[in-house]
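Reader question, answered in our methods column.
A reader sent in the components of a multi-part assembly and asked whether the whole thing could be modeled at once rather than chain by chain. We filled in our standard form and ran it. Here is what they sent:
COMPLEX SIZE: three components
ENTRIES:
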Amino acid sequence: MMMEKREENREVTAVAGVSPFVADQIEGIFDIAFDSGGDKSSQGFLELLGLQDLPGFFDLPAPTAPVEATPSEPPPDSSAVLNFPATPNSSSISSSSTEAATDTDPAKTQPQEDEQDKTQKIDSKGGKNKRQKRQSEPRFAFMTKSEVDHLEDGYRWRKYGQKAVKNSPFPRSYYRCTSAMCGVKKRVERSSVDPAVVITTYEGQHTHPSTVLPRGVHPALPPPLAAEMAPPPPGGLGCVLPSLQPKELHFPYFTSYLPTPPMDFRHVSAGIITALSGDLRECKPTADILNRDHGLLQDVIRSDIRNKKE
DNA sequence: CGAGTTTGACCCGCGC
DNA sequence: GCGCGGGTCAAACTCG
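And here is the structure of the entire assembly that came back:
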């Protein structure tokens, strides 16, 4: 219910899946970011993610336990998992999805057809059988450390189910975008490894603008360009680099090309974005964007901290 | 009263 | 074929 929307004291903690050492650093940074006065609520999550673009961020010590160990997640599939080496240098920003392996699946590149297929199945079976397990729509998951399960992301969601997750004390909740004709879904669950970590998986693409227009969205970006830069991301999240190495994760790009707003990450400290879909195009940042992002960085991080990082 | 949540039942895919 | 687990439906319920 809306009970999840209460204004709790959101703890500013660590990036999910990052070692305590890193977490401590991040925490410090975010404390600054949030305590610097002004409208905290306007701090978009993806802007915060921009912090991860800090040089050497991903060179920091390894996480103790990969977040991907989430029981609900299937074992990494080489074709489905982002190219995050399972080395100590990786931030365990990895995930997988069974359908992501079907890169060549036509349905994947043509969600419309998939929808049609769904409908056909409904018609053919009639009655209650509207289920369609096949998840060929692009999926997009990320992990956040948050006290609240259901994070604000600018869209309205309706919960349509909840299931207990095997090997996890925490249930998984299923949400659907309340907007008509928008079939975007999202799953929210807590990691059994780290209960503080919320794993949110978006599926599908919003066919409508969000109800909120937070910072980080650049309306000036012409739609065609935006489309070229990044496919309309599920859940309003941005493009994903197809063959990611930790150091190549330039999260500000997400921010820059977001056609839909990022979440209200007052609730979270930071997140890890993980692509679950193979239907992704490479982001092509421009100098302008880089400059802009740097500006954002300046907004968020004290200069002396930045210098230290650099 | 409408919108959203809860929850048990149902269906499907997959592994054995 | 069977059982398990994930995903979805839909009636009942809650809340504003």
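What stands out: Residues 1-2, 72, 128-133, 135, 160-161, 163-166, 172, 174, 185, 187 of chain A lie near DNA strand C (CB under 10 Å from a C1'). Confidence is low (pLDDT under 50) at residues 1-135, 213-310 of chain A.
Send us your own complexes using the same form.
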